[in-house]
Every structure is written in structure tokens, then in C-alpha cells.
Amino acid sequence: MAKFSDALASHFSSRIRSRGLDYFRSDSVRIESAGEKSIVATVEGGAVYVVTLSIEKQPRAWRVSGDCTCPYAQDEYSPCKHLWALILACDSLPSLRSPPASVSFMLSDWDEDIEGDEDDFLDDPIPYPIKTPAAK
Ligand SMILES: [Zn+2]
To answer: Which pLDDT belongs to residue 117?
Structure first.
């Protein structure tokens, strides 16, 4: 049976995945809250980063968006090793077992200007507003 991480592996380079696996194996991932629709965790590396996954579940497809506070995700706009480490940790969550065949992934940019003029580089239009995690 496919795992959550299997469904998302194609969005991460093998280098990022192997570094994320190191974080996961060294117990650097701490899930702070895991709900049906969003998971918030901290990943401790050179610094402590807050990593968030949001999951929109539809019957045959899940749309996953991720965010991390590290410079790689923020500045390069690339899926980072912290996100991969969290995704590996999510494999053990019952609510994320048995993902459907179609699972999409994108980085959310909720602290950027979503109305900006850079929409062109997104592969898919965003059909609904990105949910922003509630500020603490
Ligand atoms: Zn990161």
C-alpha cells in the first residue's frame, strides 16, 4: 500500500530526500499538532524551523501544500529537507494512510503577496484561497 511519502516523493529531489531522511532518523521532527487538514511541526537543524502541511482531501485526490520557515523554502521557493522530514513522520499518522492515486504538492506562499504578479510560474491555478494557519 502506498505511503503518504511515496505519493509526494516525485516533488522532492533525491538529495533533499536523503537529507530529510537524516533529520527524520535523528528524531529532529516534532509534530506539534496534527489535524485532519493541517499538520504543524518543528524540525531542528542548524536552527528550529516551523514546518506546516495543509491537506485538502477530495475523494480521489489530495492537494497538499507545504511551508517551512527556513531560507531555502522562503528564498528559493523550493521544497526543502525539513518538509520531507515531516512528510516521512506523517507516514505514521492514521489520517494520512492510504492516500489516493492523485496527490499534488505545492509550496504555499502565505506570507508572500499572494495577489502578486508571479502567478505564472505556478503549474496549477489555485482553485480556492490558500488557508493560512491561524496566527498564534
Ligand atoms: Zn525547510
So the answer is: 45
For ion ligand 1, residues whose CB falls within 5 Å: 68, 70, 73, 80, 82
pLDDT, averaged per 10 consecutive residues of the chain (136 residues), comes to 91 97 97 94 94 94 96 93 98 93 86 46 52 58
For ligand 1, the distance from its centroid to the CA atom of residue 68, given in whole angstroms, is 5
Residues in contact with 32: Cβ distance below 8 Å, sequence separation at least 6, in sequence order? 40, 41, 42
Using the mean position of ligand 1's atoms as its centre, give its distance from the Cα of residue 4 in Å.
Answer: 19
**CATH number of the domain within which 46 lies:** 3.30.310
CB contact set of 85 (below 8 Å; sequence gap of 6+): 20, 21, 23, 24, 28, 29, 43, 51
Q: Which domain holds residue 28?
A: 4-109
